[in-house]
């Protein structure tokens, strides 16, 4: 049987990318199961809110130029605003749930000696870290926006550092202050490696997501230009399928999150040799096999 991938291992740039795919491949069924079990409710809520928003837009667009349009434009503005807020809240909650799920999975995987955790074990982590990670996400977002406003380059520089804060908090059960200092310490002399790995996986995510979602988005946009032609409207079918695919494409976010976790474990092993020290601690602790007979002389 092929041994499971070791997370606590020093890796170069190429190994981070390749091991991210390898980890997902080896744990694909478990990761996919966790994705639907713990993030499914957010996917459903996101699809429903997006469908409602698209149907509101469809109703206004398909009646554009009618006698009721002036009044309808006000309805459109209100409906769009409310549904956008709902969709944003659901989207944020879904992203936090996915982040906590994947990083908790990796934390427990390492803790259990490269064995995938059970749903019960994972649920305990998710309950504990969800709101903690939510608070940290809001704080990170504020810091990132400030950095981008002051100058774009500080924002780019901070992005991988702020990203590493999440696995530090979950794996080490730390405070934000400790995670902030630890992130700067770990990424020192490794910024380009971490940034490049995360950047590459995000490019892959964007391309795959575009391939999935673009056809249905194109149908809806094209229908806007053809709405004056009789019997040509925003397709209800395309709205439903497009919204569902948009939510299902969130599964692609597993890749950059796994890459982020791999980066963290690689950096901690390079800086602190946590995996090596753990193996040293285990030396001499294993009991002798009771089935082995004593050596005779």
Number of domains: 1
> Stretches where pLDDT falls below 50 for ≥5 residues?
286-297
How helical, in percent, are the residues? over 70%
Structural class: mainly alpha
Number of strands: 0
Beta percentage is under 5%
Distance between the termini: 36 Å
The largest pleated sheet is described as:
none
Instruction: Report the principal-axis shape.
Output: globular
Number of DSSP helices?
A: 10
What sequence of helices (H) and strands (E) makes up the elements?
HHHHHHHHHH
The Cα radius of gyration reads 24 Å
Q: Which oligomerization state do the chains in this entry correspond to?
A: single chain
Q: What would the average pLDDT be, to the nearest integer?
A: 82
Description:
It is built from 10 helices and no strands. The longest helix has 43 residues. The chain starts with 12 loop residues before the first helix and ends in a 15-residue tail after the last helix. It has one domain. 78% of the residues lie in helices and 0% in strands. The chain has 297 residues and is an all-alpha fold. The relative contact order is 0.14.
């Amino acid at each position: 049987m092929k041994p499971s991938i070791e997370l606590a291992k020093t890796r170069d740039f190429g190994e981070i990318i390749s091991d991210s795919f390898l980890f997902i491949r080896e744990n694909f069924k478990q990761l996919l199961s966790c994705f639907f079990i713990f993030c499914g409710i957010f996917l459903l809520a996101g699809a429903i809110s997006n469908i409602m928003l698209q149907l509101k837009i469809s109703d206004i667009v398909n009646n554009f130029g009618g006698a009721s349009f002036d009044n309808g434009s006000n309805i459109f503005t209100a409906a769009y605003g409310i549904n956008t807020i709902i969709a944003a809240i659901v989207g944020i909650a879904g992203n936090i749930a996915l982040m906590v799920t994947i990083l908790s999975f990796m934390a427990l995987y390492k803790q259990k000696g490269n064995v995938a955790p059970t749903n019960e074990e994972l649920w305990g982590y998710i309950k504990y870290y969800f709101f903690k990670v939510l608070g940290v996400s809001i704080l990170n977002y504020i810091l990132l926006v400030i950095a981008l406003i002051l100058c774009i380059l500080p924002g780019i520089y901070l992005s991988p550092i702020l990203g590493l804060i999440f696995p530090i908090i979950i794996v080490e059960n730390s405070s934000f202050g400790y995670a902030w200092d630890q992130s700067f310490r770990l990424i020192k002399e490794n910024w380009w490696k971490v940034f490049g790995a995360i950047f590459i996986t995000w490019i892959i995510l964007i391309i795959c997501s575009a391939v999935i979602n673009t056809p249905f988005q194109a149908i809806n946009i094209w229908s806007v230009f053809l709405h004056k032609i009789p019997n040509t409207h925003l397709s209800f079918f395309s709205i439903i399928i497009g919204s569902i695919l948009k939510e299902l494409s969130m599964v692609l976010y597993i890749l950059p999150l796994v890459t982020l976790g791999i980066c963290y474990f690689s950096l901690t092993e390079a800086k602190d040799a946590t995996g090596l020290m753990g193996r040293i601690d285990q030396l001499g602790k294993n009991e002798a096999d009771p089935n082995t007979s004593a050596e005779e002389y």
